[in-house]
Design brief:
Shape: elongated
Number of strands: 4
Strand content: under 5%
Oligomer: single chain
CATH superfamily of the largest domain: Leucine-rich Repeat Variant
Helix content: 55-70%
Structural class: mainly alpha
Radius of gyration: 44 Å
Largest sheet: 2 strands, antiparallel
Length: 683
C-alpha cells in the first residue's frame, strides 16, 4: 500500500511538471495530453481527478488552437466515456465541463464526416450518461449538467435567420447538410426543445435549489441573445417566475439573502435583455416585472424589520374580532321592573338586627350559617368573584330591597326585645351611678349572643390599629430573570416610539463629563440597554433550548444584535455605541485583572458578518460607521476585501479602504496592503 501511494505521488509530481511545461509553452499541449491519456484512466483516484481537471482545462483555455482542439476531442472521447462512470464528485464535474466544450467540436466534425458513426455513438453515449446524472447527482455536478444542456440546445437549434448576421464559426443546425445519414434535423430539434422545457421547469418546481435556479438563469441569457426563435419562450418563463412567491411563513436571514440573490439575478438578466435589444416587444412586460420584484423586495425588507411579531398581530386581530362581534350582537332588552312588594317580606320574625336587615336569602341553611368560620382569603375570593359575575339587574333589585327595608324599619320601629339594640337613635337618658355605659348612637353596634347564657350580649368595639404591608413574595432565580427579560423587551419597545434626533438638536449636554442617560429619550434608553449588556452582573444565567446556561448580559447582547440587523441602516448609531462600550469594558476588565472572555471581537465580527452581505453601493454611511469602531482587526479588512471582489459593490469596498487609510492611521498600513494585493492579483 505504501509503495502504491509512493507511485501515485510520483505520478502526480510528474503530471504537475508536465502541466507547468504546457502553461509556459502551449505548443506542447497536444503532445502532453496524448501522453497522459493512458495514465488518466488506469491510475489512482488522485491521478484520475487530475486527469479530469486537465481535460477540462485543455478545452476551455484559449491558448490551444481550434484545429488542435478538434484532434484532441476525437482522441479523448474514450477517456471521457470511462470517466463518466466514476462516482467521485470532483471527477464528474470536470468530465461534464469538458463534455460541454467537446460537444460542439464533435458535432461540427460529424457534419463534415458523414460516415464517422463510431465517433458520434461515443458522443451520444456520453450525452445520455450526463443527462441521466442531471436529477440524481450532487448539486455541483447538476450545475455542470445545466451548462452541458445549454450547449446541447445551442448546437441543436437554429440561430439567426438573417444571412448577413450569421456567425460562420458558430455550430448550429444550420451547419448540418441535408440528408445527413447520422444527424436527423427533426430529431435533433425536438430533443433541443425537450431539453429547453426541462431546463425551464427548474424555475417553477415546488422545491428547487436556489443554486440551480441561479445557474439556470445564467445559462438562459446566452440562449436569448443567440437564439431568437427561443427568446419568446424563455422570456415568458422568466417573467412568470417570482422568487418571492414561495416565501415561507418564518423567514430567516439565510432565506432572505437567498431570495434577494435570486431576485438580483433575474433583474440583471432582464435588464441585459432590454439593453441588447431595446426594440424587443417584451420591453413593457419586463419593466412591469422589474417593478413588481422591487416592490416585493421592499415588502420583504419591511416584514423582516417589523418590530411586532406575527403572533402579537394575530392576538390583536382576534381581540378586534371579539370587539366587533360584541358590538354587532344585539343587546337584550332590559327586564321589566319587579312588582312592588312588602319591604319587610322575607325577614325572619323577631328583633330587627343588621343580619336580618341585609339577609335576602330564605333558605334556613344559609341564614343559620356562620360566615366567620371561613378564612378571610376565601371570603374575599367569593365576594370578588360574585361581584364580577352578578347580574346588574339583580344587584340593583337587592340594593333597592335593603333600602326599602331600612326605610320601613326607621319609619315604624318595632318593639325592642330584651337584649336587642335599637336601629333608630333614642333620646338621651340621664346616667346614674348604677347605669352602665351609654348605648352607641344611631344603633351602630353589633349584637353578639354569648354561647353560655341567654340574652347576654356584649358590644364588639372596632378600633383601627397600626397597619403593616405584608412582605413581598420572594422570587426564585428563574422568576427574577423572566422579569428582567420582560423589562428588557419593554425597553426595546420604548426605543421605537422615540424619534431619532441628530447631535445638534439633542437637549443633553455633549462631552466627556456628561451623563450617559441625562434624559429619558431614545439615547437615554439606548445607553441603559448598552450599559446593562456590557457592565451588567454576570449571573449564572438561564438554560437555553440547547440546555446550556446563558447569562442575562449574553441574552441582552443577542437581543441587541437581532434588533440592529433587523434594520441596520436606521440603527447604525446603536451598533457603534454598543461596540464602543464592549471595547471599553474589555480594556477596563483586562487592566484590573478580572478574568473575563473578551466580547468586542466576537460581537463586532458577528454584526459585520450580518450587515456586509446586504450592503449596496448607496450605503456610504457604513464607511463612517466602520471608522467609528474603536478597533479594526485584520479579519474585518478581509471582509471588506471580499466586498471589493463583488463587481456590483467593488467601488464601495475600495472607498472604505481608502477612507480608513486616510482617517485611521493605526490601520493605514493594513489597508494599503489590501489595496496593493487587489491591484496586483485581482485585476
Amino acid at each position: 500500500m505504501a509503495a502504491f501511494q509512493a507511485t501515485s505521488d510520483a505520478q502526480l509530481q510528474q503530471l504537475g511538471e508536465a502541466r507547468n511545461l504546457v502553461l509556459k509553452d502551449p505548443g506542447y499541449w497536444p503532445q502532453v495530453l496524448q501522453g497522459t491519456l493512458p495514465l488518466i484512466t488506469s491510475g489512482a483516484i488522485e491521478v484520475r481527478r487530475w486527469g479530469a481537471d486537465f481535460l477540462a482545462e485543455t478545452f476551455s483555455t484559449p491558448v490551444v488552437d481550434a484545429r488542435a482542439k478538434q484532434e484532441l476531442a476525437l482522441a479523448c472521447l474514450d477517456t471521457l466515456l470511462r470517466l463518466s462512470n466514476e462516482t467521485e464528485t470532483g471527477i464528474l464535474k470536470s468530465v461534464v465541463q469538458c463534455s460541454a466544450s467537446v460537444y460542439p467540436i464533435v458535432f461540427r466534425h460529424i457534419c463534415s464526416n458523414r460516415n464517422d458513426a463510431d465517433t458520434w455513438n461515443k458522443m451520444v453515449a456520453i450525452k445520455s450518461k450526463i443527462l441521466s446524472l442531471w436529477d440524481v447527482a450532487p448539486i455541483g455536478v447538476r450545475i455542470c449538467c445545466i451548462k452541458f444542456v445549454q450547449r446541447v440546445i445551442l448546437v441543436q437549434s437554429r440561430g439567426v435567420t438573417d444571412p448577413r448576421l450569421v456567425d460562420r464559426s458558430e455550430t448550429s443546425l444550420a451547419t448540418v447538410p441535408a440528408n445527413h445519414p447520422l444527424l436527423s434535423l427533426p430529431s435533433l430539434d425536438a430533443e433541443a426543445q425537450g431539453l429547453l422545457d426541462r431546463l425551464l421547469s427548474i424555475l417553477h418546481e415546488e422545491h428547487s435549489e436556489p443554486t440551480l435556479i441561479t445557474a439556470t438563469l445564467n445559462n438562459l441569457a446566452p440562449l436569448v441573445k443567440t437564439r431568437p426563435p427561443l427568446a419568446q419562450r424563455i422570456i415568458g418563463a422568466v417573467l412568470a417566475f417570482n422568487p418571492f412567491a414561495r416565501m415561507p411563513g418564518t423567514i430567516s436571514v439565510q432565506d432572505r439573502l437567498v431570495m434577494i440573490s435570486v431576485e438580483k439575478t433575474v433583474r440583471v438578466m432582464l435588464l441585459n435583455i432590454m439593453r441588447n435589444n431595446q426594440q424587443t416587444p417584451f420591453a413593457g412586460r419586463i419593466s412591469q416585472h422589474i417593478q413588481r420584484l422591487a416592490q416585493a423586495k421592499a415588502e420583504l425588507n419591511d416584514s423582516f424589520s417589523r418590530k411586532r411579531s406575527a403572533t402579537s398581530q394575530q392576538d390583536a386581530d382576534s381581540k378586534r374580532q371579539k370587539v366587533d362581534r360584541i358590538s354587532t350582537t344585539p343587546r337584550a332588552t332590559p327586564p321589566p321592573p319587579a312588582p312592588l312588594i312588602d319591604p319587610l317580606q322575607g325577614m325572619q320574625p323577631g328583633p330587627v338586627t343588621f343580619a336580618k336587615l341585609f339577609t335576602l336569602a330564605t333558605d334556613p341553611a344559609l341564614t343559620s350559617f356562620d360566615g366567620q368560620q371561613l378564612p378571610l382569603d376565601l371570603v374575599l375570593q367569593i365576594v370578588i368573584g360574585s361581584i364580577y359575575n352578578v347580574d346588574q339587574a339583580k344587584l340593583d333589585a337587592a340594593i333597592a330591597m335593603v333600602k326599602a327595608r331600612y326605610e320601613a324599619v326607621m319609619a315604624n320601629p318595632p318593639a325592642r326585645a330584651p337584649g336587642a339594640l335599637p336601629l333608630a337613635p333614642s333620646a338621651p337618658q340621664p346616667q346614674t351611678a348604677e347605669a352602665g355605659p351609654p348605648e352607641p348612637p344611631n344603633g351602630m353596634a353589633l349584637v353578639k349572643a354569648e354561647a353560655g347564657g341567654e340574652g347576654d350580649e356584649d358590644v364588639v368595639q372596632l378600633q383601627l390599629g397600626e397597619y403593616k404591608l405584608p412582605p413581598p413574595v420572594s422570587l426564585t432565580t428563574q422568576q427574577a430573570q423572566l422579569a428582567s427579560l420582560n423589562a428588557m423587551e419593554r425597553m426595546f419597545s420604548v426605543i421605537d416610539d422615540f424619534e431619532k434626533t441628530s447631535l445638534i438638536s439633542r437637549k443633553s449636554k455633549l462631552g466627556v463629563r456628561r451623563l450617559a442617560a441625562s434624559s429619558w429619550d431614545r439615547e437615554g434608553w439606548i445607553s441603559v440597554l448598552v450599559r446593562t449588556a456590557t457592565r451588567g452582573a454576570q449571573d449564572a444565567g438561564v438554560k437555553s433550548e440547547s440546555g446550556q446556561a446563558e447569562s442575562l448580559p449574553d441574552i441582552l447582547r443577542e437581543r441587541l444584535y437581532q434588533y440592529i440587523i433587523a434594520d441596520f441602516r436606521q440603527r447604525m448609531d446603536i451598533a457603534v455605541a454598543w461596540l464602543n462600550e464592549e471595547w471599553y469594558n474589555d480594556k477596563t476588565r483586562s487592566s484590573s485583572g478580572t478574568p473575563r472572555q473578551p466580547q468586542y471581537q466576537k460581537w463586532m465580527m458577528k454584526v459585520m458578518d450580518a450587515i456586509i452581505p446586504f450592503l449596496e453601493v448607496r450605503d456610504r454611511l457604513f464607511m463612517r460607521t466602520l471608522s467609528e469602531l474603536p478597533e479594526i482587526p485584520v479579519e474585518l479588512l478581509h471582509k471588506v476585501k471580499l466586498l471589493c471582489l463583488d463587481p456590483d459593490r467593488s467601488s464601495l469596498g475600495i472607498q472604505m479602504l481608502q477612507y480608513l487609510a486616510m482617517f485611521r492611521p493605526p490601520v493605514r498600513e493594513q489597508c494599503v496592503d489590501v489595496l496593493e494585493d487587489l491591484w496586483r492579483n485581482r485585476k
